[in-house]
Amino acid sequence: MLMQTHEARLAALREELKRRGVDGFIVPISDEHMSEYVGDYAQRLNWLTGFGGSAGFAAVTLNHAAIFVDGRYTVQVREQVDGNLFTYKSVPADSLGAWLAEVCEAGAKIAYDPWLHTWAWVEAVEKQVEPKGVTLVPAESNPIDAVWADRPAPSPAAALVYEDDLAGSSSAEKRAAVADWLVKHGHDAVVIPALDSVAWLLNIRGADVPHTPVALSYVIAHKDGSAELFIAPEKVTPELARHLGNAVTIRDRDAFESALTGELSGKSVSLDPDFAVVGIAQALRSGGARFTFKQDPTILAKAIKNPAEQQGHRDAQVRDGAAVSRFLRWLEIEAPLGGVDELSAAAKLAEFRGRDPGLRDLSFDTISAAAGHAALPHYKVDEDSNIPIPPGSIYLVDSGGQYPGGTTDITRTVWVGPGEPTAEMRDRFTRVLKGHIQIDRAVFPQGTCGGQLDVLARQYLWEAGVDYAHGTGHGVGSFLGVHEGPQRIAKPSGGQAGTGQELFAGMILSNEPGYYKQGAFGIRIENLVLTEERRIEGMEGRYLGFETLTFVPIDRKLIEKSLLTTEEVAWMDAYHAKVRELLSPLLEGEELQWLERETQPL
């Protein structure tokens, strides 16, 4: 029998917990690979609670239930999750461990799925609950799966070959580099569960996860340069088998756990603490392997794009820039008439992107945000939250596409007429723009990390007594994840991963400062940039800077020119001249006229 209400689903889960003799269960948004986006089969939190955000978790005991989200989802969680069933909790102020310690009796056993959590997560929660006498216990199977009668099966889509000319390096070359790393660190093998790492290492792609072209699979790479790919047999085509060659053994995904327990016995194995779930570590330990936590050796290599990947990005950005420009012209005409809402705007942008035969997918769900919704940095429009774009307001659109050569991510904030933006809007927009220009123009010595650059983007907002609560920049993949580590530009405090990562030539980052006035409007300007070496006359040591990759007009109606320096005006004019140069060949007629008008010098 299918359960339609969340109340019935919660009740069924509690009955299953009683049957298993446990007092509670933790429900994350996660899959076995610690992916940012997960397939429908892994959307257990959404099924149980109705929450549709991309980050959060629930905890259910026999008598209590709570849902934990961060500040991005404060509004959304209340719209989607029944407050009579789940207490709303805000992280990091509220912690799971403290809540469990509060609501559980001494001796309570709280189950978790060891294939959906990392070792560090378990240790952190255990520290908080053990003084109360509460124990975390790994579940043999996920209790939600036992009561979710119509749970979708994992995607059966075939894995695809990613051509070496796009990848810029063969899988054999990449595996040889991993083998060298294993020998250097004294390991026999490394277990790679992160889907984008598997895809990068073997030069394969897939269609198993929304917006990220990866195939559900694992790799065990060995110090002799060989590897084993664990993947469902229906995903393997003759072309894929030929591409992987004799040095990569293709095995059934269901054989992965037994390979960990049996075949690595006595071996030294490396695991990435951010991606290797407890289930992997437990299987290795039970089989007699020795494991050490170290960063996956593909992660830094994947982040440093080779010349082919860099050029692929440039090509993708131009194609994407033409689509976004067509959309902005359409929006300028249609939105002031009052007939455009957030959903129809997002659909129209997807339509413009979809005219390019090279587009494979969007790189994430479009943030199409009007009026006060634009003040929610990670707002996700749906049928319930959708509003018309009001004439005489600010509209923010953050979007991207997946192209064979690269992954795009761009935000533009525009004024929707009639009328003029307020002085406050122009002031805030221009301060965001000034910070964006400072990141784009930054020159810094080798050894600099993203956390050291972050203040450049915020300084003009701080002068006005305002700030923004998200990072300034994240890494981006090559026809892979739109959010890719380890590099990041963000405030160093708060333990944010990646802010201490040294930046290297070849790394791609977003440059996206913003400003958000709650309930009124939001502003963000985002381009992607490529880290590159810089030559400076008389320089001592090596220096780096950024090459701009994203070229789409920035709304001149929101710029307060008197706040810009001569150098900043020159940057704007040079940027718009480059936009015109790159996009003009792809546009014609009235679209080209619009582009020429929007890129006139300030």
UniProtKB/TrEMBL annotation:
Keyword Chloroplast carried by entry: no
Gene3D superfamilies on file: Creatinase/methionine aminopeptidase superfamily, Creatinase/prolidase N-terminal domain
TM ranges: none
The keyword Protease appears for this protein: yes
InterPro entries: Creatin/AminoP/Spt16_N, Creatinase/aminopeptidase-like, Creatinase_N, Pept_M24, Pept_M24B, Peptidase_M24_C, X-Pro_aminopeptidase_P
Residue ranges of every copy of the Peptidase M24 domain listed in the record: 313-532
Pfam family, one: Creatinase_N_2
Highest taxon of source: Bacteria
Keywords tagged on the record: Aminopeptidase, Hydrolase, Metal-binding, Protease
Domain Peptidase M24 C-terminal, chain residue ranges per copy: 543-602
Residue ranges of every copy of the Creatinase N-terminal domain listed in the record: 9-141
Any one GO MF annotation of this record: aminopeptidase activity
Family, as annotated: Belongs to the peptidase M24B family.
Protein name, as recorded: Aminopeptidase P family protein
Organism of this sequence: Erythrobacter fulvus
